[in-house]
Here is the input.
Amino acid sequence: MYTEEKNGSLFVKTGSYALTITAENIDFIVAGEVLAGLRPVSAVNTCGINDTVNSDAETGQARLSTSVLNGVVTCIWESASSLWEKKEYIVRCFETHFEYSVRVTGRGAVDTVNYFSGNPSEGKQGSMYEFDMGFTPIVTVTGQKQCYFSAMESQEVFSYLMVPPMFVYSFSTPGVARKMAFGLAADRGEHNFTQFNYKTHSDANRRRFWFWTDQSGHTVVNGTWETPRILCYVAESDMAALRFYSDYYFASGLARHKALAEKRPRFWYGPMTCGWLEQYAYGNKHGGGYASYDECTALACEEVYLNLVRELREKKLYPKIMIIDDKWQRSYGDQVPNKEQWPDLRSFIDRNREENGIYTMLWFKLWDAEGLDEDMCMWDPKENRPVADPTNPKYRERLKAMLYHLLSGDEGCCNAYGLKLDYAFWQPVGRGAESHSGKYGVELFLELVSYIYRCVKEIKPEAIINCSPCHPLFAEFCDQARLHDYYIDLRRCYEEFSFRKEVYETAMPGVLFDTDGAAFSSYRDTMRYMRLAPTLGIPDLYCISPMPSLELSADDWDSVSKVWADYNRRIDRMFE
Here is the structure.
């Protein structure tokens, strides 16, 4: 690292990037070009009365000081504001990247943090940029507004499929080969946010940008607090930007990989079948019309799944895993089997394994409070509904008992072999989302998933946790990453899931991949994906009865059977 002080500025140069730092600006230089002029001033806003926000503004000129300790160049701008007794903007320069954070002293419940936002009261809101296109790894069900966006547009998209996503933006600049990247990172226990958004504003014929993240009042400062930090770095590509972010989490000890010595039973590798679309198809076939959602959930029953097993065997398809989908349970909160639909779920699960070699998993709806006592719940102000509180001792005790009943092989239990965790997007968001422990955002969801994982492994170590978070923090608690929903009107199933797999593999290396199901809408798209899915991960069949949109022939099923047979032989060789 090379440093030089000249005319009141500090120049820092490494093999990856360069900075020119002054009292008012941080020039981020890539390949000799200033691609961003970052304002060190940032706003740490607090919660006002009701839903108002107390806006943070500078009340004096920031004083810059620099130091070098253990090879790390540190710059601190010391200032005061309308809300805080003292504020410090901190840049720490490392060889591969630099980190930016804000340290505040005083009292207040933090609402939002606006990074590099400047001081609007001086007519200088936001930071200068020269990049053109942005990328962030948030995929959508419909493919609309997916991942790429113009740098002139604000980007505020909730991750419906990847909860949470990797909080990363990378930007491309015409004439510059490498990408400029920004990633939001925090210490363990400090991920009390749900979003990392990109904001722009046009002022005096010049558009500027900043980033913001939500704390929604769930971080209460009484003394000194340092915000989550932004990692600022250069990458060769968008995917390389994601890898840097993920590697940072693992290398720094903030996240842990899957254990290398973890034993994975043969059945974990599938193939697998899930009954969700089959419930619709069965309702259409036997009900004389396309099943409604309520009719479909009523078809998560023994009759439908026995038929699914028969049809699979007739078509020479031999899955190792079967997932009973929504809604086998009496209510989503208590997760007790519906006796009208499953008179003896344990018997079905045991016979399915003994007679067919199929291990049965259960779809598990997260957050839903249906059937739970009120004192086990918290409030979701965004959707105006109660949800389960994973930090509430009473709910945790109830949840552990539920999991024992569903997974244990003891008498009176169901003896299932894993859970497909779904509806992560029901996570409560906003100021009123107050959990028993005070955790919020990513931390609250991590508490839920990690608790379920540990309970499940204590009850049945070989049971599978199948879920869809896409962040390094969750790697150790996920056995199968499900690539998630695919909109029926798209025609790029393989390409869509190939991209998602690459992103998931970057976030959580070492997990297995549930390739999810084709849409069963377009013949070409469906058949193409069923042939190619084993190249991505575990093939997963969602439907075997004719759909209103599609009916496959005996020859079609014969070709799928051959694909599965080739996949099974390949996996079997791993266990020889």
